[in-house]
Specification:
The chain has one domain. Helices cover 78% and strands 0% of the residues. The protein is built from four helices and no strands. It is elongated. The C terminus is likely disordered.
């Protein structure tokens, strides 16, 4: 019976993750409707996806207890990699929204660097 309890625990965590993501997306839509501030709405949505993906990763790790074949292990590795990649993307997007982006500078930001403008 232990596999049933692990499966039930993983399902409960997945449901919680779905609720977290849905609640944050609803909050993002409400924010957008009230304030018309797209960056703030995107930030709320990104926070929800980051939190939800963390829970989904925990549920996926809980399922590893039941992996028995190489095919199952391979599928687990693919799913885990996708979730980690998505979480990294949304974390990067959150930082970009907050103005601490690590992406390449925009054209107007580069103009003021390296003494390009007359002083």
């Amino acid at each position: 019976m232990p596999s049933l309890s692990f499966a039930a625990g993983a399902l409960a965590i997945q449901l919680l993750a779905a609720l977290v993501i849905a609640a944050h997306l609803a909050a993002a839509l409400l924010t957008l409707g009230r304030t018309r501030c797209i960056p703030l709405a995107r930030l709320r949505a990104a926070d929800g996806v980051i939190a939800g993906l963390g829970l989904l990763t925990a549920a996926t790790l809980l399922k590893t207890i039941e992996l028995r074949t190489w095919e199952q292990i391979g599928l687990f590795a693919v799913v885990l990699s996708l979730r980690i990649g998505l979480k990294q993307f949304f974390t990067w997007e959150r930082g970009r929204i907050l103005g601490r982006g690590t992406g390449p500078p925009r054209r107007d930001e580069r103009a003021g660097q390296h003494g390009d403008q007359p002083g």
